[in-house]
């Protein structure tokens, strides 16, 4: 096909439907690429990604006019980032104060420091910039000064130590990867103005400094701990001074509303969690990979205003306490922990993400219906990768208010809906990343007559070769049977003896 024979507007529409890499490939065989990429139609209000496709021709189309009107720009490390043509374009675009960019990202290697320095030095002139993302695998010479009157959100990750200084009076959101002491010093200096802070600790040696900060404006705090094998740190416990009511941290987190703590390394303990007991306004709590001992349960019960609780990855202890949370609306439950909630009915809970490893899968829906009487959303996930009991949904009708059912990330019995009673109130069914026989589709129209949306995403549906399986329900047949239901089958495939249907 000769692209050059089409009018510009036709080429624009063709390029709109191509993924970015395919657009690049097409640009290499289209001599009018410069006209297209600079047209009013193409890339209007879209994200411009500048990275290497081993051809200078792609960058020859990136002029001042195109770059200046983009609202989202990403720079990736590549050989073209050091060309005089592109560097000159960056200077002329960003120095005049007319660039419309709102979100700017730099993902750079050390050999492209000049391009990175030009972009960073131009930040004061980017009057519309509200979001900045900088990631570098080596230290930047003389550190980084980010000077912006308009910047509100900043994401920083330096693999090697780079001193970062900020002059950002409107900054309220900081996402930071902490590897070195200087990065915690940065947090300390601007903590009082932050509304949201997300900190990924690569070494636990810097965690204690968090409790010396003033978080008087903070509403959301996200803490995660991961180990980087290339950065050495001591294995001694995290030393924390006794937290007193008069301490700055204790007084400043009173207004905290969302707290997320993810400890993949299993280093944090109950003493660490107790540092947050003064966050009495907490409405959303995520604690992942902790052991559900009695002290942890008691601490969770202290947050009476919680409406969201995520305990994914938490381990069951021999002795636990029942969780009593009168305002809880959304719960992400860890494995085998229904007993934490089943003593008292939680009438406020409407959304449940449920995992289980039990071999008897017949009664878990009945137990859920007994504990959570007002569920409208139920997500069943993992189950040790198998939901194979054909009677697993035998009691699904007991969830009287259920509107959305999600099944994801496991192998599922094809008879699970065949043995399910009619559920007239269900409006949306999502099957995401499951493996099962195609016959699972046969009874969906009859079992869920009020279904308005059916999503079959990234599923592998197969047909067992046998005489009785000559006929099977195709995606098109399913659409004919359910004319009032919107059906999506993205990335899903039916495999048969004769081929496959996607």
UniProtKB/TrEMBL annotation:
The name of this protein is F-box domain-containing protein
What single Pfam family name could you report for this chain, choosing any that match? F-box-like
In this chain the F-box domain maps to 1-46
User: What's the source species for this entry?
Assistant: Anopheles epiroticus
| Cellular component terms (Gene Ontology) | SCF ubiquitin ligase complex
**PROSITE patterns hit by this protein:** FBOX (PS50181)
- What InterPro entries does the record tag this protein with? F-box-like_dom_sf, F-box_dom, LRR_dom_sf
PANTHER family reported in the protein's UniProt record = F-BOX PROTEIN YLR352W, PARTNER OF PAIRED, ISOFORM B-RELATED
GO terms under biological process: SCF-dependent proteasomal ubiquitin-dependent protein catabolic process
């Amino acid at each position: 096909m000769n692209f050059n024979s089409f009018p510009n507007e036709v080429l624009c529409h063709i390029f709109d439907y191509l993924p970015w890499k395919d657009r690049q490939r097409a640009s290499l065989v289209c001599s009018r690429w410069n006209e297209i990429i600079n047209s009013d139609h193409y890339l209007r209000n879209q994200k411009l990604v500048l990275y290497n496709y081993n051809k200078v021709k792609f960058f020859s189309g990136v002029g001042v006019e195109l770059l200046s009107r983009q609202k989202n720009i990403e720079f990736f490390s590549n050989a073209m980032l050091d060309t005089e043509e592109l560097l000159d374009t960056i200077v002329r675009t960003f120095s005049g104060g007319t660039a419309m960019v709102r979100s700017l990202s730099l993902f750079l290697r050390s050999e492209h420091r000049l391009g990175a320095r030009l972009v960073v030095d131009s930040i004061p002139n980017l009057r519309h910039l509200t979001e900045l993302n900088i990631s570098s695998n080596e230290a930047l010479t003389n550190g980084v000064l980010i000077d912006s009157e308009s910047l509100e959100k900043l994401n920083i990750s330096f693999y090697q130590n780079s001193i970062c200084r900020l002059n950002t009076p409107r900054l309220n959101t900081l996402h930071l990867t902490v590897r070195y002491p200087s990065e915690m010093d940065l947090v300390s200096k601007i903590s009082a103005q932050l509304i949201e802070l997300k900190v990924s600790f690569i070494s636990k040696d810097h965690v204690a400094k968090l409790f010396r900060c003033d978080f008087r404006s903070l509403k959301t705090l996200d803490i995660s701990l991961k180990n980087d094998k290339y950065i050495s740190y001591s294995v001694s416990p995290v030393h924390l001074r006794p937290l007193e009511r008069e301490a700055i941290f204790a007084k400043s987190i009173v207004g905290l509303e969302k707290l997320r703590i993810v400890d993949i390394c299993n280093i944090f303990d109950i003493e660490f969690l107790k540092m947050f007991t003064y966050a009495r306004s907490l409405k959303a709590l995520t604690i992942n990979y902790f052991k559900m001992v009695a002290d942890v349960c008691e601490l969770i019960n202290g947050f009476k205003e919680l409406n969201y609780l995520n305990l994914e990855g938490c381990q069951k202890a021999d002795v636990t306490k029942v969780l009593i949370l009168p305002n809880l609306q959304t719960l992400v439950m860890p494995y085998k922990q229904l007993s934490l909630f089943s003593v008292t009915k939680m009438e406020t809970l409407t959304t449940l993400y449920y995992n289980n490893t039990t071999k008897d899968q017949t009664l878990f829906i009945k137990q859920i219906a007994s504990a959570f009487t007002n569920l409208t959303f139920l997500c069943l996930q993992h189950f040790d990768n198998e939901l194979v009991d054909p009677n697993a949904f035998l009691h699904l009708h007991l969830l009287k208010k259920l509107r959305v059912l999600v099944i994801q990330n496991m192998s599922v019995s094809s008879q699970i809906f065949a043995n399910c009673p009619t559920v007239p109130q269900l409006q949306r069914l999502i099957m995401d990343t499951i493996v099962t026989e195609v016959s699972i589709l046969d009874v969906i129209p009859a079992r869920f007559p009020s279904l308005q949306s059916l999503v079959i995403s990234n599923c592998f549906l197969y047909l067992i070769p046998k005489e009785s399986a000559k006929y099977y329900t195709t995606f098109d047949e399913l659409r004919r049977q359910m004319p009032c239901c919107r059906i999506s089958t993205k990335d899903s495939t039916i495999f048969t003896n004769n081929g496959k249907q996607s």
